[in-house]
Amino acid sequence: MGSFVKEWSWRLLAVPFATRLLDFYFFQMLKGRVIGIENLINSPCILAFNHSSYLDWLLTYHLFSRHYGIQIVFLAKSKLNTKPLWRACVRHGRAIVVNYEQKQSIRKALNDMRGHLLAHHIVGIFPEGTRSADGRLQHSHEGAAWLAIQAGVPIIPIALQGFYQAWPRHRLFPGIAPCTIRIGTPITQSSDMNRQQFTQKLMDKLGQLLAETE
User: Fold this and answer.
1) What's the CA gap between 143 and 42, in Å, rounded?
2) First and final C-alpha spacing in the chain
C-alpha cells in the first residue's frame, strides 16, 4: 500500500511539471510546429515515425495526448527499464516493453499491439527499430506492415524533422534546433502489394515528408 501511495504522490507532483516543461521546450525553445493534423483519423490506425532522437517518443506521446486527445500505445525497448527516468516514462505511457534480441518477445509485443488495434486503440511504431546514428532513414523492419495487414488498419506516416539536431543519440543532454512534426495522409495495402512492398511504400512516404520544408 505504501509503495502505491508513494507512486501516485510522485505522479501528482511530477506529471503536471513535466507537462509544462515539455510544452515550453517544444513550442518555445524548439519553435515546434505540428503540420497535417487534419490527416489524423478518429479510428484505429498505426502511427509510424522515423527514429533519430531521444525526443521522438517523449515529445510525440506528450503532444498527441495533451493537445489532440490521442493516446498512443508505443513499443519501448526493454533496456529503458534499466534507467529510472526512462522506466518512469515507459510506465506512465503504458508502453509495451519488447526485447528486440528475443524473437519470442518481439512476437508477443506485436500480438499485444494487434490486440490494441482490434480494441480500437491507436498504436505508434518506429519502423527502423532503433535511433539513426546520422539522422538519415535506416533500413526498416516489416512489423508495421504486418500489424496493418493483420488488423486491417491504415498506417499514417509521420516525419520528425529537426529532432536529430536537437538531441542525437551521441549527445548526453538535449539542445535546441527548430523541430516540426509533419503528418502524412493514411496509406493502405493495395491488393497487389506484399508486406515488403507495403513497408517500402511507407518508408518512401516518410522520406518524402522528411524532405518537405513548408
Assistant:
1) 22
2) 52
Could you list the beta-strand ranges (E) of the chain.
33-35, 45-49, 72-77, 96-98, 122-125, 155-161, 180-183
Give me the CATH topology for the region 2-211: Glycerol-3-phosphate (1)-acyltransferase (3.40.1130)
35 CB burial (10 A radius; 0-12, 13-18, 19+): middle
Q: Give the Cα separation of 73 and 113 in Å (integer).
A: 8
**Higher confidence at residue 211 or residue 77?**
211
162 DSSP assignment: S
pLDDT number for residue 47: 97
- For the entire predicted model, the pTM comes to 0.88
In this predicted structure, what is the pLDDT of residue 10?
Answer: 43
Give the β-pairing of 122-125 and 45-49.
parallel
Exposed / middle / buried, residue 177 (Cβ in 10 Å: 0-12, 13-18, 19+): middle
Distance of CA 127 to the CA centre of its chain: 10
| CA distances, 76 to each of 95, 97, 106 (Å) | 6, 5, 11
CA 49/CA 52 separation, integer angstroms: 10
